[in-house]
Design a protein that fits this description.
Shape: globular
Helix content: 55-70%
Length: 209
């Protein structure tokens, strides 16, 4: 299949605004008008509860995973295949952050990014989950856990798994910078001591309409 078509498909898959559609169609609210204003799984957990949050997180991860697997429709192998996988995954993340289906106002792309990594290198993804869950258990801050896990990503790629592909190394570094950049407001709140902690299994606030 034409690579340009695969790229467009990856962006459109990433653009599926899971949190927005779930909040509007099931709960009758726009998730972007509540909590942090972010159309992602974390804000969904906070505002709509654990079931809605878990569903949004699963679908957002699936978007990144499916986008990467579009590479199977290409004739590429080896380094070219890895390059294409990274490219397709990044376009899915871009779609999540700037979704065409939701006025280009999406989430931060963490779940989609994880789904992308899971599709390319599952063991690295599982290791990142371990780092994330440990930080979440210790701090109850989703934002801090995401930041630490993203920084651990290039560390793992360079020093633990010793990934040979240059494109993947650059991607890991870029991921850490991207996550820190998209969490700059959270970092400010963490430094000021007023960042919200998350209770992952509490009941939702809004009633179904």
């Amino acid at each position: 299949m034409n690579i340009a078509i695969l790229i467009v498909l990856a962006y459109l898959i990433g653009s599926v605004p899971t949190a927005v559609w779930v909040s509007k169609r099931i709960f009758g609210v726009d998730i972007r008008e509540h909590g942090s204003g972010n159309a992602g799984a974390t804000n969904t957990f906070r505002i709509l509860g654990s079931k809605a949050g878990a569903f949004v997180m699963a679908v957002d991860m699936l978007k990144g995973f499916v986008a990467v697997k579009l590479s199977l429709l290409s004739p590429y192998h080896g380094e070219q295949l890895v390059n294409l996988q990274v490219f397709l995954g990044l376009f899915a993340v871009l779609g999540h952050i700037f979704p065409i289906w939701a006025d280009f106002k999406g989430g931060k792309g963490i779940a989609t990014l994880f789904g992308m990594i899971l599709a390319i290198q599952p063991l690295v993804a599982v290791s990142m989950v371990g780092v994330f869950m440990l930080m979440l258990y210790l701090t109850r801050y989703v934002s801090l856990s995401s930041i630490v896990a993203s920084i651990a990503f290039p560390v793992m790629i360079f020093f633990i798994f010793r990934e040979p592909e240059l494109s993947y190394k650059l991607f890991a570094i870029a991921t850490a910078f991207l996550v820190v950049l998209t969490h700059h407001k959270n970092i400010n709140r963490l430094l000021q001591g007023n960042e919200n902690k998350v209770a992952m299994f509490r009941k939702r606030k809004h009633r179904r309409r």
